[in-house]
């Protein structure tokens, strides 16, 4: 334990050193420093928990050839290793990716696609574009009568300020709103895929930083003021509030679908490309989870039988983790859900129509 704490301390100091010297997004105001420090602190807590609970970070794979799963992203990072596991379970896996050609090659590096009993289907999707989500969603609606699992995985972190073609701040658009719309479009198929005692599942790949997120209702797209960590944290809290409200609604109406949010761990992927950690790769190699380890909690949430009928949870290292206080207040979750419906102009969430 001492060894890990010592390494963490040294790494934090080294990270700070490089941060001072090299960061592209140097904090300028007290607010930015505070945000940065809170982010670093929560990251350290995440690293510590990943070490402490590493024995829990396990998932048992079993054959489920009848299941159909949709995942966003997955051509690299954690998603790629999620797909590897789902194909090992012999599922049909539909990937929604920006570049379908390279995606098949990426998966092929981990899975013998010719001999795999799982089936890989690759479709084009830019989750940051509502038009692209609509097109992708319609294709899935037309081709699959039922679905068993939806994994909202694609994401970005610490991107420079950008509004998408729909006018949304890019973290909010890609990490949350595109997935919100996709879930609306596929919910009918997911309801058909589930049955009593065998719920279908929706997994929102969120993050431990939800704990320090805040929804800025008066300036959701951060037009007046933007700091990348604030954008990321907001989008990750958004996923949790959505998870909580949707799961409650589905439970109340008796629909056989459960919803989970997952923190995959602090994982060595390209997600950190806009952060100072890229300057000290050894820090990531030693302390972060590998993408394979990061994929376990997500697959656990998607298939583990021990959590059947136990939706609405936030999972980390294959066990329940602490959520943002707002996520425990269903009125706040509903307020945000209604706000999201207004943002993407949905009158009847879940009816699949756009
Ligand atoms: N790594 C961590 O420590 C960590 C911690 C907590 C949560 N997470 C969450 O885990 C998820 C996966 O992250 P990762 O670490 O695997 O990151 P990554 O290696 O950077 O992979 C991100 C994935 O998202 C896809 N993506 C990004 N923008 C997209 C868009 N507009 N449309 C479609 N796909 C898009 C990427 O596809 P392209 O190749 O087309 O860009 C890629 O497949 C994210 O939601 C992230 O927030 C990660």
Corresponding CATH superfamily: NAD(P)-binding Rossmann-like Domain
Order of helices and strands: HHEHEHEHEHEHEHHEEH
Radius of gyration: 19 Å
Q: What small molecules does this complex bind? A: NADP nicotinamide-adenine-dinucleotide phosphate
**CATH fold name:** Rossmann fold
Give the name of the CATH architecture: 3-Layer(aba) Sandwich
Structural account:
- With 354 residues, the protein is an alpha/beta fold.
- The chain has one domain (2-344): NAD(P)-binding Rossmann-like Domain (Rossmann fold).
- Helices cover 46% and strands 11% of the residues.
- An eight-stranded mixed β-sheet has the order 3-2-1-4-5-6-7-8, with helices on both faces.
- A hairpin with a 2-residue loop joins strand 7 and strand 8 (319-320).
- The structure holds NADP nicotinamide-adenine-dinucleotide phosphate.
- The site of NADP nicotinamide-adenine-dinucleotide phosphate (NAP) has 31 residues, from helix 3 and helix 6.
Features:
354 residues; alpha/beta; Rossmann fold; 8-stranded mixed sheet; 10 helices; 11% strand; binds NADP nicotinamide-adenine-dinucleotide phosphate
